[in-house]
Amino acid sequence: MRRPEGADALAMHRLVVESKVLDENSTYAYLLMATEFADTSIVAERDGQLHGFVMGYHPPTRPEALFVWQVVVAHAARGSGLGGAMLDSLVERVRRDRHGHPLTLEATVAPSNSASRALFGGFARRHGVPVIELPWYGAELLDAELAHEEEPLLRIGPIAVDLTS
Ligand SMILES: CC(C)(COP(=O)(O)OP(=O)(O)OC[C@H]1O[C@@H](n2cnc3c(N)ncnc32)[C@H](O)[C@@H]1OP(=O)(O)O)[C@@H](O)C(=O)NCCC(=O)NCCS
C-alpha cells in the first residue's frame, strides 16, 4: 500500500468502471486526486496491478475530517480485508503527517450499499469510535428523476489513538 501517483489514474478509473456501483468520474478527476491529494489517498498494488484505492481530502471547512470520496476494491480481491486495511493504513499515515491530531473519518454512503456500510462499521469497531449518520446529499440533488439514492453522511471518530500503539 502506498501513496498514489499520476501513473495510477487510468487504473483507478478502470477499477471504478468495473465496480459497476460507484459513480464514474473522468480520468482527469482521478489524476487530480492521485497527484494533488496523494497525501490523503492510498492505493493497493500487487505485481504491478492496482487492486484497490481510497481517495480522500480534508474539507476546507472541517480540516480535522478526512472525507473519503471513493473507496473501491477489485472484485477478485474483495472480502479479504483489503478495504479495511487501506482505511486503517491511510488514517494512520494522515494522523502521523498531522503530528497525531485526532481525525474524524467521513463518507457519504447510499442506504443500500451494505458492503460499504459494513466496511465503515468495521473500521469504527476496530478503532472503538462511534458512527454518526446525518442527512447530507438528498436524492433530488443527485438526479432530476430521483434515480440516484440519497447519500447520507457517516462521521466516524474522533480517532485519537493508533491501532498499532
Ligand atoms: C466496499 C468495498 C470497498 C469493501 O472492500 P473489501 O476489501 O471487500 O472489504 P473488507 O474485506 O475489508 O471487509 C470490510 C467489512 O465489510 C464486510 N463485507 C465485505 N463485503 C460485504 C458485502 N458484500 N456485504 C456485507 N458485508 C460485506 C466484511 O465482512 C467486513 O466486515 P467486518 O469488519 O465486520 O469483518 C468493496 O466491496 C467494493 O469495492 N465495493 C464497490 C465500491 C463501493 O461500494 N465503494 C464504497 C462506496 S464509496
From TrEMBL:
InterPro entries reported for this sequence: Acyl_CoA_acyltransferase, Ectoine_EctA, GNAT_dom
Any matching Pfam family: Acetyltransf_1
Principal EC category: transferase
UniProt keywords, alphabetically: Acyltransferase, Transferase
EC numbers on record: 2.3.1.178
Signal peptide: none
Family annotation (NCBIfam families): ectoine_EctA
Entry's family note: Belongs to the acetyltransferase family. EctA subfamily.
Name by which UniProt lists this protein: L-2,4-diaminobutyric acid acetyltransferase
Protein source organism: [Mycobacterium] wendilense
Underlying gene: ectA
